[in-house]
Amino acid sequence: MDFPALNMSVVPEVEGFFDPASNTISYLVKDPASSACAIIDSVLDIDYAAGRIAYDSADRLIDAIVARGLRLEWIIETHVHADHLSAAPYIQQKVGGKIGVGARIIEVQETFGKIFNEGTEFQRDGSQFDALFEDGDTYQIGGMTAFAIATPGHTPACMVHVIGNAAFAGDTLFMPDGGSARADFPGGDAAELYRSIQKVLSLPDEMRLFVCHDYGPGGRTIAWETTIEQERANNIHVGGGTSQDEFVRFRAERDAQLSMPKLILPSLQVNMRAGEIPRDASGRPMLKVPINGL
Question: Which residues span the domain enclosing 123?
Answer without folding.
Answer: 14-263
